[in-house]
Amino acid sequence: MIGLNISGYSFSDLVNSSDILDLSYLERLNLVNCNIREIPRFLRNLGGLVELDLSNNKIHGQVPKWIWQLQSLVHLNLSNNSLNGIEVPVSSQPLDSLIFLDLTSNLLEGSIPVLPSSIKFLSLAINKLTGEIPVSFCNVSSLTILGLCYNYMTGEIPQCLMVELHISILFLVASNLSLAKSQVY
Asked: Domain 3-183 has what CATH class?
């Protein structure tokens, strides 16, 4: 089996059963709006998983560090849940295959985590993030879409986001961020 989409079904009781199916060859898994309350543990054994969509569920707690060890993962959507944090992986650099990461509309707190250098789309909008936009964003040259609106972030927007990087869409609405005087044109 390469792809499985069982979106919209109540899957909450079966989500951590390893006896359901042999999913070892799964590349795409969509469990959207399935009333899931935690990130399924059986996912840690899906080394070939490329796309994972667990959006619009009731997932709480933290994004587990083992999710960053899914070396084939390119697309991760955990938006519209109740996640409050991200467990930092043991290595300082998260997986380099990840291109799309959507954590919109959760309860994430604290500062922005270290990003994979491969990321192109990142949305952390509608959370409770605080602090400044890390200057380390300047090292993520592939980033083209960045959503940070509706958080509690402060400080200046790094100049690289406005000039040096090739960001085509930047969402910063309702944040307490400001442009450096040298950035005002």
From this structure: alpha beta
What are all long-range contacts of 59-66, with beta carbons under 8 Å and residues at least 24 apart?
59/83, 60/84, 61/85, 62/86, 62/87, 63/39, 63/87, 63/103, 64/39, 65/89, 65/90
Sheet holding 121-123, edge to edge: 3-5, 28-30, 51-53, 75-77, 100-102, 121-123, 145-147, 169-171
Query: Which residue ranges make up each domain of the chain?
Result: 3-183
Spatial distance between the Cα atoms of 76 and 172, rounded to a whole number of angstroms: 22
Quote the pTM value: 0.87
Q: Which residue has the higher pLDDT, 18 or 108?
A: 108
The helix (run of H) or strand (run of E) holding residue 162 is helix 159-162
